[in-house]
Amino acid sequence: MNLVIDKSLKKAMSYREYKDLVKQLVEENSTTGNEKTEALANYTKLNDRRMKRWDKTVKLSDETKDRLKSFDGKTTWLVLTESWCGDAAHVIPVLNKIADFTGNIDLKLVLRDENPELMDTFLTDGNRAIPKLIMIDNETSEIVDTFGPRPSEATSYVNRFKAMNGKLTPEFKEDLQHWYNKDKGKNIIEDVTEMLCELKPNVCQ
């Protein structure tokens, strides 16, 4: 396990480097991943705009800031992603906002298709679902938790639709993007803050 993580960390990117990569791909009308299609290139363009918007608009509430101020555990957040992934474009800027605020979280990103061993170690219901956040304690190198591919409310929304319809439709995927836009990152912030509370109880005081 640790060898797989160490291998991925050696080629991991910072959030800024990831954004620069996405920007370059937009200019080249391309995308990350093994599959290169016009549709995925268009999703990359859309996600570039999404990330820029969330960087500007996502806010941490005063209550969240108070809880996060006490978080002193130094951790690495290793996130599997791809530029074409809509969920990732909504989730990762929020994770970056939290990491930046605490100052104790090192956010690193790797591409799913370039790290199959890592991805297959952290499947969701047997699927290579992204984004996938792996929380690593810097002192012990232990994996302390995971998050993703979606926040809890979006996951419930998706699961209910799948139970009724068998699979996600293009119309539902569009509705899911509207959900993210309406939520403004709040559910992601709540979920991740609760995870940090469980790791360091003093965060919740």
TrEMBL record:
It comes from Hyunsoonleella aestuarii. InterPro entries: Thioredoxin-like_sf (IPR036249). This is Thioredoxin family protein. It comes from the Bacteria. Gene3D superfamilies: Glutaredoxin.
